[in-house]
Amino acid sequence: MSKLEKLDEKLLALISNICGNDEYITGNAAKYIYYNSWLRNQNQAAMKAILKKGIAFLGSSELAGSHLSHPSTVFHHGNSDFNIILIGGEWSQSLLQTINIAALEKFIDNRKIILNLSPQWFEAYYRSEAFSARFLERNYIEFLKNPRISDSLKRKIAARVYEMLETHPTERNKIQLYNRKYIDKNLSSMENLSLAIYDKFELMKNNYRFASDIQKLPIPEDNFIKASEINFADLMTQSEKFAALTSSSNDFFINNNSYARLRSESQKNSRIFSSMHPEITGSQEFNDLRLLIEVCKETGLNLMIINIPANGRWYDYVGFPKNEREFYYQTIRDICKDYGINITDFADKEYEKFFLRDTMHLGFKGWVYIDEAAYKFYQD
Question: What gap in Å lies between CA 113 and CA 105, rounded to an integer?
Answer without folding.
Answer: 9
